[in-house]
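Following up on my earlier thread - several people asked me to post the actual chain instead of describing it. Fair enough. Here it is, all 323 residues.
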Amino acid sequence: MGKGADAVDVLKLFLFLQPSILMLSIPMSILIAIFLTYGRMATDSEIVVLKASGMSFWGISRASVIVSLFCFVVILFNSMYLLPRGMYSFKRTLHETIVKKAAMTFEESSFTDVFKGTVIFVKEKITEDEFKGVFVFRDADESLDRPFVIAAKYGVISSNPEEGIMKLSMKEGLIHTFKDSSSSEILFSKYDLILTSGIEAITASKPEEIKTMTLWNARKENIRWESEFHRRLALPFACLIFGILGPALSCRIGKIGRVGGFSLSLLILIVYYMMLLLGKGLADAEKITPFWGGWAPNMIFGVITVIFFYFAQKDRPIGKLKF
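Reply from S.P.:
Thanks for posting it. Predicted structure:
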């Protein structure tokens, strides 16, 4: 915003990021909320009272399971549908915003070095994106063996989101290149200079930006796409696992209180997401299959959940005595 980006564009960027944030924040919030609730119930001996009154563990944990099931549906829809569209729209909007930012940095009779390795001078601004009297200097780099200078009467900066490029279109000018003791000049009526913005082309989309059905259809051709597909499908099940693990673990541990519940939930989250990142890294490096990379954390925590659920369900109240 300090460089001239509109508040609407900033708001759009923020909204397009929400699906990717919800992928992690919803399972985290589920686990923390459940541990805080059932930890406090255990501290106040409310769980003991409920068991003594004849309520089973399933009855005690039913509320958390229903909430986690609802969150599972929400995050599954978010993962399969909203996430790729949000990431694609985010990159597209970001690219357009950078173009607006670059155009606003051009001032009359001044030099600008917004683009790496390139210095641009504008004598006069006709409109926000159209210039009169343009001077460009680009230094040599890995992709360019000799520097060059461009002088043109007119210039227009624009972008093509579909191709993921930014360009400065110039008219009626010349290009002067030089190296050691040799130099050359080329006159042109129109010339497009591609400007580096640091944003990848949309045609080279990351796995997070690919639609789910496309990932599924091409999963055998690209291991990173297959890994992303399993990750999208596995993360929603974390809500169900945490929704059952929270009450079961709280009942077995006993009086942990709010602080203890919060600390324990954070520890579980850290371990889970470290395993998730490790699995993704190993799958991308082809050390393990994408299936195991995405589902191994759920399987491990699923087994732990079943064990604690079994012991919590086994801890039933004593039946009423008949005289």
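The chain has a mean pLDDT of 81. That should answer part of your original question.
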